[in-house]
């Protein structure tokens, strides 16, 4: 705990057998109270490794539902366990768990409602091996979103996020996409609620075992990101109405 806040780390996993142990062993349990892993019908022995590590809450899908659906299961369980702060960390060891205390401290001290681990602040992305085309597309999409959504966020596409649980309780994330654009949708919903969003510089590692989507799925994701940003603008200006921002 930090400031008597219950901290739960959620691990949305898919074929994470080669990296799960390294990720789990770096989690700072001096502040983290519990861990949840959701396996999205992996083809490897992710669940076996999770059991061997002694993870308390191991959830599994009976079919591959998608990255967004995986997060939904994680967040729902964390809220059921009465988490005060929820950290979403990829178990592919691309992001270092060592930043969890810093991210959670910012939320626990009521400075921010959301803290993002940004690969773009400093030179973490390129130094860590992010492919140039992904870096360029990241910067272009982030620029478009900042303009359309009137924000100043360095990166909308990080998979390392720390939430005040009270904020997630205000968002109907169950109706968001089951695919990768879920990340973008939930961040747009946070912006719509005028949540206080902070960022911390995060080094990132790109290697063979780290998860990555292919070029075609990257294009699909990029189009989804633009759709979310345009929907946000139209909703804010009352020129349109979208289910993504319903009841917010």
UniProtKB/TrEMBL annotation:
Record CDD domains: DPM_DPG-synthase_like
Pfam families xrefs: Glycos_transf_2
Gene3D superfamilies attached to this UniProt entry: Spore Coat Polysaccharide Biosynthesis Protein SpsA, Chain A (3.90.550.10)
Domain Glycosyltransferase 2-like as annotated: residue spans: 9-171
Domain of life: Bacteria
PANTHER family: RFBJ PROTEIN, UNDECAPRENYL-PHOSPHATE 4-DEOXY-4-FORMAMIDO-L-ARABINOSE TRANSFERASE-RELATED
Protein name: Glycosyltransferase family 2 protein
Organism: Flavobacterium sedimenticola
Lineage: Bacteria, Pseudomonadati, Bacteroidota, Flavobacteriia, Flavobacteriales
């Amino acid at each position: 705990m930090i400031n008597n806040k219950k901290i739960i780390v959620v691990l949305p996993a898919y074929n994470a057998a080669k990296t799960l142990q390294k990720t789990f062993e770096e989690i700072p349990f001096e502040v983290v109270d519990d861990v949840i892993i959701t396996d999205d019908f992996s083809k490897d022995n992710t669940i076996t490794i999770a059991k061997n590590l002694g993870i308390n809450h191991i959830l599994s899908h009976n079919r591959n539902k998608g990255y967004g659906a995986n997060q939904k299961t994680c967040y729902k369980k964390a809220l059921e366990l009465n988490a005060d702060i929820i950290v979403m960390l990829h178990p592919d060891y691309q992001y270092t768990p060592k930043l969890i205390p810093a991210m959670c401290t910012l939320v626990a001290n009521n400075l921010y409602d959301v803290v993002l681990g940004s690969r773009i602040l400093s030179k973490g992305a390129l130094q860590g091996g992010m492919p140039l085309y992904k870096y360029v597309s990241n910067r272009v999409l982030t620029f478009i979103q900042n303009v359309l959504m009137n924000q100043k966020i360095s990166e909308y596409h990080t998979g390392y996020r720390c939430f005040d649980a009270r904020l997630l309780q205000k968002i109907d994330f169950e109706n968001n996409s089951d695919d990768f654009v879920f990340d973008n949708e939930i961040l747009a919903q946070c912006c719509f609620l005028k949540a206080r969003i902070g960022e911390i510089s995060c080094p990132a590692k790109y290697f063979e075992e780290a998860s990555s989507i292919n070029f075609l799925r990257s294009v699909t994701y990029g189009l989804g990101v633009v759709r979310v940003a345009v929907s946000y603008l139209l909703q804010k200006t009352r020129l349109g109405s979208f289910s993504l921002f319903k009841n917010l």
